[in-house]
Design brief:
- By secondary structure, the chain is mainly α.
- Helix content is about 85%, strand content about 0%.
- It has six helices and no strands.
- Helix 5 packs across helix 6.
- The longest helix is centred in the middle third of the chain and has 36 residues.
- The protein is flat.
């Protein structure tokens, strides 16, 4: 139990620094954009309405974003760039970060323990499982890259004009 508490505490500090830093970078980027040549676009009524909505209702999205993979950085940056007030952002950060740290501490330590036992007791099975996992991830990456290349080439080939003769 001490391992889980220590790991969760360390992960909590990490997530607070990372997400809070992303929020701060977003805040600075938003401030810079408001002073740039994009200021006219940012001051439109539609943008202001979106900004007010994020400022008012964005806290639950921030908290839930920590339960997703690959979404939390974008949400924290957007919350910062859209100037979500700190009294709304910080409770969402603390709550969502705590949930993230606990999930990763318990599930992460459990997965590491299972892998450790697998490699210690049945090394061949552990190596085989790792090889299958690496092959599956590699195949997924290749599949996505080929699909993206095909979709970009088909969309760019639609731009050409056929010879009418």
């Amino acid at each position: 139990m001490d391992d889980i508490a220590l790991t969760a505490g360390a992960l909590y500090v990490i997530v607070l620094l990372r997400a809070g830093g992303t929020f701060a970078v977003g805040w600075l980027a938003g401030a810079g954009a408001r002073r740039s040549r994009f200021a006219g676009r940012i001051s439109s009524a539609k943008f202001r309405r979106a900004e007010r909505g994020i400022q008012r209702w964005g806290a639950p999205v921030v908290a839930v974003s920590f339960l997703t993979v690959g979404f939390q950085t974008a949400v924290n940056f957007l919350a910062g760039s859209m100037r979500m007030p700190l009294p709304r952002y910080l409770p969402a950060l603390f709550l969502g970060g705590a949930a993230w740290a606990l999930i990763y501490a318990t599930a992460g330590l459990g997965a590491l323990e299972v892998l450790g036992r697998l490699f210690a007791e049945r090394t061949a099975l552990g190596v085989s499982a790792l090889a299958v996992l690496l092959c599956a991830v590699s195949a997924l990456v290749v599949y996505r890259r080929r699909r993206a290349a095909l979709s970009s080439s088909s969309s760019s080939s639609g731009d050409t004009v056929a010879d009418p003769s």
